[in-house]
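Shipment paperwork, digital attachment
Item: protein structure file
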Amino acid sequence: MNCERIVRLIIFAYGFVCINLALAFLCFRRKAAIHWLMMALLADFGAMCVAGGISVYYQYEGFFVNLAVFAPMALLSPVGAAFALECLSPRGVNSPILRFILPLTAAVFASGLALVALGVGWKAAYVLSYDWLFLTFLAIAVIEGIELRPIRKMPRPLYLFYLIVCGNVCLILAMAACRTLDCFPGLYVLWMLQIASILSITFLTLRAPETFRLIRAAARTIRCERSSLSPEVVEEAVSRLGKLMANERLYLDSELSLDELARRVSLSTHQLSELINIHLGKNFAWYVNSFRIERAKELLERSPAMTVIEVAYGSGFNSKSAFNATFRAFTGKTPTEYRGERAAVMETVP
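Attachment content:
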């Protein structure tokens, strides 16, 4: 058995290891966003490694065998980006960067399949996927690096994580070059390094989850230090904003805009956006919807005669579909499921 075959078998075996680690995260009773993202990253990466081992065994022949490798490889861009942004950006997965990555990933996936259908071959599809993965992490490294500069003065946990992101940029570029040149021994070695990188991050997530909290807190602190709003103005604006939302229930206006809310808080649109994004760690839609969802919970529990659509309109949503999608995003349940669970709980209370 030659060295290349041993490396391929190791990658195949580590695919199963990654999948089992992803299943291990399901055992966590209280999962933070970082745990869900780590689970998704491990499951996707593991599936790609297992499918890649099968593809190598069949000598890269067969449409469905290659599709099983290409699909999770394409998904690595948004999943990996979401994980990195959850740590580096105060907005986490709500970062606008991810909103561009998702549709572009779909376009890359469709383009890869189109190349195969036109007879160009799977190699072109794989190279396209590597290139897109490289551009994704390069964009994150550059954009977040500019926002968090100077890089060398970052707090140590944040600095090390940022170096891991930059290291993956170089690693993916080398992998793209190896796949383009059909240098498979080099490609397999690079995949081993990629596996080591992901397993080290997994170890930190399992053994030291507070590390990721410190990383994100450090990133947020750096941005707050560059804020155009003084601490006094921030404190006063946050208090005024909270009172407006709680007392005047501005969130009940389904047409509430950033401009209108900024006018009511006596800030410019840019200042309010900065206040919500950096100092509150949310985006405008998420901030407003958090109040709407709390109002919806109240109506679902206290007004059983109201229909779901009535609850939606009574909470500030302008459609049932938007209400259902947002409610599930915040609670993990549909409004109907939530109402049923709360009713069951109330029946057991003496």
